[in-house]
Design goal:
Layout lengths: L1 E2 L4 H11 L19 E4 L4 H4 L7 E4 L17 E2 L4 H19 L2 H9 L16 E4 L3 H12 L4 E5 L8 E5 H10 L3 E4 L13 H4 L6 E5 L8 H10 L2 E6 L19 E3 L9 H16 L15
Parallel strand pairs: 1-2, 2-3, 3-4, 5-6, 5-8, 6-7, 8-9, 9-10, 10-11
Helix pairs in contact: 1-9, 3-5
Length: 303
């Protein structure tokens, strides 16, 4: 069963090529529920999945897995999507905004509007440390890209790490230390019970005054009202939000009109059939061979 959110024709073409002999059915046109062994989707009604008595695995086409926090999904393995191409897109997006504010492109746009030629000398990249919250596939690719451009990279994770050239922090105290020593903070965290509302008034108070905040993980990790207060009192200098608590962002949200907020519509990285479909097919082949697919969603860790 395939329930892709986009690029349907390309998904069918690639999966058909990668899985010769497999019958691929597009939901909701399922003529024989008992024949379904694999469900490929981003978001789907768990109740419908119980129609398929031979279901062996769920394969997500999204990097986010907060939809699986519900406990009413069938008891089958859930395979996460960790696509390097998607990580590259998110890294490019994040690096763009770091460079944009570090190199004062925001100010140059204002000067252009009034016809002023005024070079602004920014600090060297090695004096502009960037903190990355979450250092999985996505966060690590963001950090690697920044490091290649000379930015010092700090990473905050649950368990720490030992990546060469990266300063690692862990735990609540470690998060506060990272925030206090970063000129830009990039939030790539998934939404879990532990990260829900993590970036709140208390955390924004630890920011280096005027620092940049970029959110590309999940909107629910940021308390938007607290972020607005931090922007108004100068604790946070500017914010780039690719994710928000409610999506699409309601027209009445004050985030739209705040002068130091930039909004994009959950577009920092897309699932592309060209790279994602072969990964889904490879995991289906692994399961058919009796091997374990990867990466598996861990219900205990919520990702």
């Amino acid at each position: 069963m395939l329930n892709p959110t986009n690029e349907r024709r390309e998904w069918l073409k690639i999966l058909g090529r990668e899985l010769p002999g497999e019958r691929i059915q597009l939901w909701p046109d399922i003529d024989d529920p008992a024949s379904i062994e694999f469900a490929v989707f981003w978001i789907h009604d768990p109740t419908d999945l119980r129609r398929y008595p031979r279901l062996r695995a769920i394969l997500s086409v999204s990097a986010g897995v907060e939809q699986f926090l519900r406990d009413d999904y069938p008891d089958v393995p859930i395979v996460r999507m960790c696509d390097a191409a998607m990580a590259d897109e998110m890294a490019a997006y994040s690096i763009h905004w770091v460079v944009h504010f570090h190199r004062r492109m925001d100010r140059y746009l204002e000067l252009q509007e009034v016809g002023k030629w005024r070079p602004i000398r920014n600090v060297d990249a090695h004096k502009f440390p960037v903190g990355v919250l979450g250092f999985g596939v996505m966060g690590r690719r963001v950090g690697e890209g920044l490091a290649r451009l000379g930015y010092p990279v700090r990473a905050w994770t649950r368990s720490g790490g030992s990546d060469r050239g990266v300063t690692h922090f862990q735990g609540p105290r470690g998060l506060e230390k990272l925030l206090a020593c970063s000129d830009a903070v990039i939030n790539t965290l998934p939404l879990t019970p532990d990260t829900q509302g993590l970036m709140n008034r208390r955390r924004f108070a630890h920011f280096r005054p005027g620092a940049l905040y970029i959110a590309v993980g999940r909107g629910g990790t940021t308390v938007e009202a607290d972020l607005l207060d931090a922007l108004d009192d100068g604790s946070v200098g500017a914010a780039v939000l690719d994710v928000t608590i409610e999506e699409p962002l309601p027209a009445a949200s004050p985030l739209w009109e705040h002068p130091r907020v930039r909004i994009t519509p959950h577009a920092s990285a897309f699932t592309r059939a060209r790279t994602a479909a072969p990964m889904v097919a490879a995991n289906i082949r692994r399961i058919r061979r009796g091997e374990q697919p990867f990466p598996l969603y861990d219900p205990q860790r919520h990702y």
